[in-house]
Amino acid sequence: MDNVYHLDLNSKNIQGAKIALLPGDPFRSQIIAESISKTYGTGNERLAWKREYCSYLTEVSGQKILITSTGIGGPSASIAVDELAQLGIQTFIRVGTSGAIQEYIDIGDVIITTGAVRLDGASTHYAPIEYPAVANHEIIYSLIEGAKYSRIKYHVGITASSDTFYQGEERSDSFRKYTLRKFQGITKELQSLNVLNYEMEASTVLTLTASMGLKGGCITGVVNKRGMEKITEQCLKTGETHLIKAAIASLKYLTDLSG
Ligand SMILES: O=P(O)(O)O[C@H]1O[C@H](CO)[C@@H](O)[C@H]1O
Ligand SMILES: O=c1cc[nH]c(=O)[nH]1
């Protein structure tokens, strides 16, 4: 049985998994797998680690759950989603970190994305820019229930996905102090449009899944907010801990729906 080229997985070793969790950071795959094992009393095993793609297999309520990291940005996320779809995955949930741009959102809150502003390039290789990057309603519901159960403050709304962390998200600590004209004022505009946060993969994951007739969703833990561009170890830890707790709790609701 041939392995898919980048993920180094095949349809046999994923054992019929239909649900995949997609962190950006490959080291988050193991943390998520071990947290699932601890919460649900099931085992986990590492299946592959090639480039930025680190995959673990575990189980919740009798359903196999695959965890595969996407790396940073749309191009690598598109490869992960495409190759997982080739292997039969039907439900894709990004489990990431993000930066809040609304004042009322705090470090450690989680954001459940209903749709993403497509500031990326990769998603346009799968569907024209007029096509909406929207999340599946069952996944949104499960993520909300997971956050409620975990008693973690959550927000539900629109996320902006950028191709670049520094220039595209209009960061003041970019090495080149000049921000390109096309990005000057973008944060203010997105704030006025009620966009909640910046990250880098949701628009790709949601455009690909919706346009391919699959289910996509996204939950992110807030690790910084405007006015404090530096991401401290403590902020990252709080954001990731809450993120993983809420995402894992949501699996109970998701597997009930798809079981
Ligand atoms: O923490 P992850 O899931 O990688 O998500 C966010 O972190 C990276 C940037 O630091 C980007 O991938 C962004 O989307
Ligand atoms: O501000 C942030 C934080 C995490 N990831 C991003 O892309 N932006």
UniProtKB/TrEMBL annotation:
The Nucleoside phosphorylase domain, residue ranges: 18-231
GO biological process: nucleoside catabolic process
Residue ranges of the TM segments: none
Reactions that this protein is recorded to catalyse: uridine + phosphate = alpha-D-ribose 1-phosphate + uracil
Keywords for this protein: Glycosyltransferase, Transferase
Molecular function GO terms recorded: uridine phosphorylase activity
SUPFAM superfamilies: Purine and uridine phosphorylases
Cited Gene3D superfamilies: Nucleoside phosphorylase domain (3.40.50.1580)
E.C. no: 2.4.2.3
InterPro entries (UniProt xref): Nucleoside_phosphorylase_CS (IPR018016), Nucleoside_phosphorylase_d (IPR000845), Nucleoside_phosphorylase_sf (IPR035994)
Stored Pfam families: PNP_UDP_1
A single Gene Ontology CC term: cytosol
Entry similarity comment: Belongs to the PNP/UDP phosphorylase family.
PANTHER family according to UniProt: FI09636P-RELATED, URIDINE PHOSPHORYLASE
Protein name as it appears in the record: Uridine phosphorylase
Species of origin: Kuenenia stuttgartiensis
Gene name of the record: udp
